Amino acid sequence: MRTLLNLLWFLFSGLWMALGYAVAGLICCVLIVTIPFGIACFRIAVYALWPFGYRVTERRDAGLASGIGNVIWFVVAGIWLAIGHVLAGIGFCLTIIGIPFGIAHFKLVPVSLMPLGREIVPTASPAYPGYRW
């Protein structure tokens, strides 16, 4: 089921979102100072391609620089990305068939708000608190 949802997501939403995040990542990497934001954009782009079966967790080794970077990201881009994901999620949830895709958009909100100091892991990973053998 996860594979089918990922394929449908790729067609309806994921490809366009991943391309947008990848272009933003390239722009951030060209501007040398914003390379950490570019790397975060590339991570989000991969997550936006295949969101089903993955979760976002906090990295315990993230420090003060990640916090400061997240504040800058929030002001410059994070709030607008989050608003876009919320609106797309609401739009998808208006139909019964689109509810899983709306939930996937809602899953992208926290990582689009504050991407630094986050890690994307499979749901069947020991790093995920709900991990079961």
From TrEMBL:
Question: What is the species of this protein?
Answer: Streptomyces boetiae
Which stretches are annotated as coiled coil? none
User: Pfam families from the xrefs?
Assistant: YccF
Q: Which UniProt keywords apply?
A: Membrane, Transmembrane, Transmembrane helix
Specify the domain of life of the species encoding this protein.
Bacteria
Q: What is this protein called?
A: YccF domain-containing protein
Lineage of source species? Bacteria, Bacillati, Actinomycetota, Actinomycetes, Kitasatosporales
Residue ranges of the TM segments = 30-50, 62-83, 89-109
> Looking at the keywords, is rRNA-binding present?
no
User: Which positions fall inside the Inner membrane component domain?
Assistant: 4-53, 68-118
